[in-house]
Design brief:
Layout: H1 2-13, E1 26-37, E2 40-48, E3 59-60, E4 63-65, H2 72-84, E5 93-96, E6 100-101, E7 106-115, E8 128-135, E9 146-148, E10 157-162, E11 165-167, H3 171-183
Parallel strand pairs: 1-7
Antiparallel strand pairs: 1-2, 1-4, 2-3, 2-8, 5-7, 6-7, 9-10, 10-11
């Protein structure tokens, strides 16, 4: 596992990430939290609470809007704690992926963390319907990313395999870029990946 950590950290350090100006968009962050569970490398994945006003039932990485004075790392740590009861620290951040603009008008920075601790989950039911440790190896599914024509004629929608399902962007876009950059050292961009219109609601 230590070799995996060093390889992912080196791949992220070598990646010339794209940092975008906020403009009128609300800045947010998501956390890709890596840890070993029973000898298998995993990341945290959730499904949003079914009672939420926006994104109910969607697959999601822990994350949310930056509060005043926060940077992406701090916000990702806070949101992971609030949503899942998982404590991570700035020293566990391995790096960041490209800033990504969602259809909902957010500018999201994905932050990759590595925890050597044995993590336990205590999801907040007001925000999270379900949370679990998803095997990282599933990101290498031979058919992933699965491409689908955009129903409105935009860029193709790319889906990634998780939870025995094909999940949508924007979460799928972040996981695809993490796979390409973090796991394989390929400098793949995802800013033009199509997003289903309902993700803006």
């Amino acid at each position: 596992m230590h070799a995996d950590r060093a390889r992912i950290a080196a791949n992220l350090a070598a990646f010339p990430r794209i940092a975008l100006e906020t403009g009128e968009r609300r800045r947010a962050a998501v956390a890709i939290v890596l840890s070993s569970q029973d000898g298998e490398l995993t990341y945290l994945l959730t499904r949003r609470a079914l009672t939420m006003r926006r994104g109910a039932g969607n697959y999601a990485l822990p994350g949310g809007n930056l509060e005043p004075g926060e940077d992406a790392v701090t916000a990702a740590i806070r949101e992971t704690s609030e949503e899942l009861g998982v404590a991570i620290t700035p020293s566990e951040a391995l790096g960041m992926l490209d800033d990504f603009e969602t259809l909902g008008g957010h500018l999201v920075t994905p932050v990759v963390f590595w925890s050597d601790e044995t993590l336990s989950l205590n999801p907040d039911p007001s925000e999270v319907d379900r949370a679990w440790f998803e095997p990282v190896e599933r990101l290498n599914h031979p058919e992933a990313p699965m491409s689908e024509a955009h129903p409105d004629g935009g860029e193709p929608i790319l889906r990634m395999f998780a939870d025995d399902n094909w999940i949508n962007p924007p979460t799928a876009a972040w996981l695809y870029q993490f796979r390409e950059v973090g796991l394989h050292g390929r400098h793949t961009r995802v800013g033009t990946i199509g997003q289903p219109e309902w993700t803006a609601r």
